[in-house]
Amino acid sequence: MKKVYKWYVLGAAAAVYLGYLFSGVMPPGTTLMALDQERMLDVFQHPFGNYFNENTGKMVMLALGIYVCWMLWDMARPKKYRLGREHGSAAWGDVEDLSRRLKSKREMSNRILSEHLRISLDTHMTQINNNMMVIGGSGAGKSTAILLPNIHNISTSMVITDPKGELLRTLGGYLQHEGVMVKVLDLINMKQSVQYNPFVYLRDQASVRRLISNIFENTKDKGASKGEQIWEDAAKMYLEALFLYVWLERPKPSQNIPEILRLMSLAKVDEECRTLGELDQIFSVLPQDHPARETYCRMMQAAGDTVRSVLFTANARMQAFYNEDLQHILQADQIDLASLGIGYLGDKKTKTVIFCVIPDSDKTYNFIVGMLYTQLFNELYYQADILYAGRLPIPVTIWMDEFANVALPDDFVTVNSTVRSREIYLSIILQNISQLKALFKDYWETILGNCDQMIYLGGNDPGTFEYISKLLDHETIDKRSESQSMGRSPGSSKSHDTLQRSLMTPGEVRKLSKKDSLILIRGEDPVIDRKYQTFRKKWFIALKQVPPYKAAKREEQKKLQILNQSSLNHFLRLQENGENVVIYEIPMEDLARFKGEKITKEFRNYGVAAAEDSETGSKTEERKRAGSVIEYMLKYDLDSAQQKEVQEGIRAGLSEQEILLYLKPFYTSEQMRERRLLIQEFLG
Questions:
Q1: Residue 135 φ then ψ, to 5°
Q2: Which of 124, 451, 505, 545 sits 20 to 30 Å CA-CA off 558?
Q3: How much is the average pLDDT of 545-553?
Q4: How far is CA 491 from CA 48, 487, 495, in A?
Q5: Where are the beta strands (DSSP E) in 164-246?
Q6: InterPro entries under this entry (predicted)?
């Protein structure tokens, strides 16, 4: 505004001078009608002559009055000056100032973006979400400058897509040493993988359909014609019937993908395609209104040749599951997706890191990670929305490296826009913008718009150069022009103006230093800073002294799990929300009789154990024996009435061997009661 006033003052001086010149044009006694044009021309050709006369004061006042009237009008009319910003106001920010305003005092509560920039994960403090987009070509430092330091920081629980397993080899041992629960879904060396059973995370019929849709979407032939859609829809219906049957009718140990494959092998089509042999018999004994039977009958209403095509389509889609090692992974569940957001057994403090190790040269089994992602979001949403008032007790970061090569949930666009409020953070890692456009043709800008943090590490994609340059916007620069003319009337001139210029042109984006990263944060000026120097940090050098990651053998998994108060509250919360959870109490003195001093010490301060998923086991389990009553109860699924009979035996003073005489998973609670009373009567 001061510059505007300066021009007003200069204008007033010019008005005074013009009034002086006009007094020379109109000496006393001259009227407007009698102006001497030759005199006017002479005055303006010699502007510095002496023209003072009796009219000089009047003419100066008149000119100044006219100017003041114009000035007042100009000041009163609506206008908005943005001097120096006429063509854009983009500018570079200061890295240290930005970090000082956005970082937390606790280093573990920060996300590391570059050598000098930290951002707190507390969204209430920063007022930005924690979704992040990382773009960088091969060798640009996505793993070394972003993933390694942030995983090492252990600020949240994490799910990490890890091509070739390099991150696991580097940090797996360190994470274990720090008390983090490390689980590895290994699709390279499947024999070393933790087990993941999708059936554990099914809660309703809708979740069954989502799982089947995900399998179909991520195993489809990209070149298939749209005319084949009718077979796919019917095949989905067929698989839905099988999944519902296994989920609702089979005992818990048989609720898995291998059981689905076994049922599919029973479908023997007769010559007229009217029946599917033994499979028909399985569904025929179900109630008429059973969801599995209803779905199966709808599929079987098709013509004979159609049924044959449906079976062929379904078997083709499930072909990838016919791998012995993969079936072993899918047979049971050790990955426990819920623990990411709620801690070990709901303790609200133990962080979990899941590495999804995938080959970088073979995408055959990447759809397993896609299945996990689909159920991961559903499970974390359930824990947050239903059990913990909308926010997970432990934040979860999902590091989606190789984003373009891993199958994603069908509703990922919606997920990307809704995870923030539940303390789930997405970190999408791409090689270039073209990958995102190919995946989400109509919604790629929506994905980017929901990421308040973007890091560009360099690359060689022209489309990315253009996009980054456009995001940086324009600045206003000064322009100075000089010209000189030669000839009869030589002369020179200088002029000053303002122009629009991109903060960085696409060419300048391309030439970004290999040592630097360009960072854009919503609501802040962009900054350029050095990439995080991982290899020079003391913590990285010290990793050589940490023992490597050691995968726990499957048979070493704990059968007896001790609950603290937070864990107990978690299971109580599950019970209140209708989950199939039974909680029972065992007096300390009774428990000591079975496990002695060691377990008594472990159970001190805890008086409660929990057993999940009550259901009667099959008769083939009769030949199995547990080492103790406690192990037996945890090994087999007993309903609440059966568990009560065990408690009654303990209260009656029966020994472990005496309780095992009537503790059979295939006995009903009434049968157990009869045998318990007989034993008590016999013992007197």
A1: -125, 125
A2: 545
A3: 81
A4: 22, 9, 14
A5: 181-186
A6: P-loop_NTPase, T4SS-coupling_protein, TraG/VirD4
